[in-house]
Design brief:
The protein is mostly beta strands and 214 residues long. It has a single domain, classed as LURP1-related (Porin), CATH 2.40.160. It is 10% helix and 35% strand. It has a 12-stranded antiparallel β-sheet with strand order 3-2-1-12-11-10-9-8-7-6-5-4, with helices on one face. Strand 5 and strand 6 form a beta hairpin. It is globular and about 40 Å long. It starts with 15 loop residues before the first helix and ends in a 19-residue tail after the last helix. Belongs to the LOR family. InterPro entries: LOR, LOR_sf, Tubby-like_C. This is Protein LURP-one-related 8.
Length: 214
């Protein structure tokens, strides 16, 4: 990780839909640190390729069954609200734009099945403003720090990759422009909330299970 402390300048954050529509740009590579920069607070601190602060998540609640997590920009402005769906047969979360007051963007539902499967969760777009296919599947192993969000053709639109020699609290998140870095991070947060209890075998162990519970 090039830097721990962010630059003072607050970068402009493009809207979610414009990020998702920029399909000709290279992937965004982020470094995710399982720690909040705020004292006595748990969460994520996310850096861009230059070591500048890109996103943050600050969790004050220590509950293992949180109802809501907010992804913020450098200045603390809500970019996405990840909210648990009530009365769902499977563990399901909905990702909303901004402070979560109106626009649902994606649904992330935990995979449930009797047969062994590489699938951990299913992601479904909920907004026509997102130029995305009908569905994604999250596959891989959190225990190995290796998982991917794949489209119907099996192509990865986001990947969690192990970052060597820095311990388990730091990893890479690679996001393709058609999904966008904020939505990719939102999916990671939802997956973490589903699996941080450690249930479901080795493939279901949460890579980030200590993020908001250490």
């Amino acid at each position: 990780m090039a830097k721990v402390h962010p630059n003072i300048r607050v970068p402009d954050q493009p809207c979610i839909t414009s990020i998702a529509s920029q399909q000709q740009e290279p992937p965004v590579v982020l470094t995710v640190w399982r720690k909040s920069l705020l004292f006595n607070c748990h969460g994520f601190t996310v850096f861009d390729a230059n070591g500048n602060l890109a996103f943050r998540v600050d969790c004050y609640a220590s509950s293992t069954r949180r109802a809501e997590v907010v992804l913020m920009d450098v200045a603390g402005k809500p970019l996405l609200t990840i909210r648990r769906k009530r009365l769902s047969l499977a563990d399901s979360w909905v990702i909303y734009d901004g402070d979560g007051a109106t626009t649902p963007l994606l649904s992330v539902r935990r995979h449930v099945g009797l047969r062994a499967s590489k699938a951990l969760a299913h992601v479904t777009p909920l907004s026509s403003s997102l130029p995305l296919p009908d569905a994604y599947v999250v596959e891989g192993s959190y225990g190995r720090r290796s998982c991917a969000v794949r489209d119907a053709r099996g192509e990865a639109v986001a990947e969690v990759r192990r970052k060597e020699s820095v311990g388990d609290d730091v990893f890479r998140l690679v996001a393709e422009p058609r999904l966008g870095a904020p939505l990719a991070m939102g999916i990671v947060i939802a997956i973490d909330e589903m699996f941080r209890g450690g249930g479901g075998g080795s493939s279901a162990r949460s890579l980030l299970r200590r993020t908001c519970s250490d």
